[in-house]
Amino acid sequence: MVNYAVCEISGKQYKVIPGKPLVVDYQGEEAKVVEASVLLLSEDGKIKLGEPYLKDKLTLSVLENVRGEKIRVSKFHAKANYRRTTGHKSKLTKIVLETKKSS
Fold first, then answer.
1. Which DSSP letter does residue 102 get?
2. CB contact at 8 A, 7 and 38
3. What value, to the nearest 5°, has the Cα angle with vertex 56 and ends 62 and 60?
4. pTM value?
5. Which of 95, 85, 87, 57 is nearest to 71 (CA)?
6. What is the pLDDT of residues 48-89, one digit of tens each?
7. Backbone φ and ψ of 72, nearest 5°
């Protein structure tokens, strides 16, 4: 039984806990599962540390694709009557760790 794992997904490291949803960068519309490289794995109180990765890979299920929080960007030039405001919402994927790991 995996207590937690530190995985690399899309070049970023995340602490993954079984059953707890995790929001990561967008993985694509067709993605149903995500394979993650494991850096550290805690099973039954024993810790396995990779150099840099373990041979095991974790399979994470995709729950849904969501949009992130809106980021507002403003430009302003003093004494020139120049004001511009734009925004951006990033695409994100919500995933969850399945209870078993695949080798």
1. B
2. yes
3. 5
4. 0.80
5. 87
6. 999 999 998 999 999 999 999 999 999 999 999 999 999 999
7. -100, 130
Give the chain's length: 103
Find all residues with CB under 8 Å of 1, minimum gap 6, and list them: 18, 43, 44, 99
DSSP letters along 5-49, please? EEEEETTEEEEE-TT--EEEE---SS-SEEEEEEEEEEETTEEEE
The Cα–Cα gap between 65 and 36 comes to 18
User: Domain residues of the chain, as ranges?
Assistant: 2-97
Q: 44: Cβ–Cβ under 8 A, 6 or more apart, which residues?
A: 1, 3
In this structure, the number of other CB atoms found within 10 A of the CB of residue 93 comes to 22
Question: What residue type is assigned to position 48 of the chain?
Answer: K
- Tell me if 92 sits within 8 A of 65, measured CB to CB: yes
Neighbouring CB atoms inside 10 A of 2's CB total 19
